[in-house]
Amino acid sequence: MDGLTVTREILKQLIEKAQSEGASRITRIEIEVGELSGLDTKEIQTHFENLSQDTLAQGAKLSIIPIPLKVRCLSCSTEYNAGGFKMTCSHCGSISSELISGNELRVKEMEVG
Questions:
Q1: Contact 56, 19 (CB under 8 A)
Q2: C-alpha to C-alpha distance for 3 and 13, rounded to whole angstroms
Q3: pLDDT digit string (tens) for 46-68?
Q4: Which of 17, 64, 77, 96 sits at 20 to 30 Å (Cα–Cα) from 24?
């Protein structure tokens, strides 16, 4: 999915949740975005500012927490960050690995008023 679609869906779900709880506004949202998610955090921020106009989330602070690409070596079980597509194990040099984190997209927290 693209940044606009993702941001629109997150905002829609959070507004529905806030309304169901009787909140008059959303003051803060914190999301986590994995390095491999393919999403541009600046783009999400811009879309959020535009899409939140005239909604419960207008003026809310959006915090985006990046989640680094982390893998586990299948040869020696060492866990390491694989940023910049560094996929060689720092312990044994193997290129065999499995993804632990880095492709997530999740809402971590929402504050309402």
A1: yes
A2: 15
A3: 999 999 999 999 999 999 999 99
A4: 64
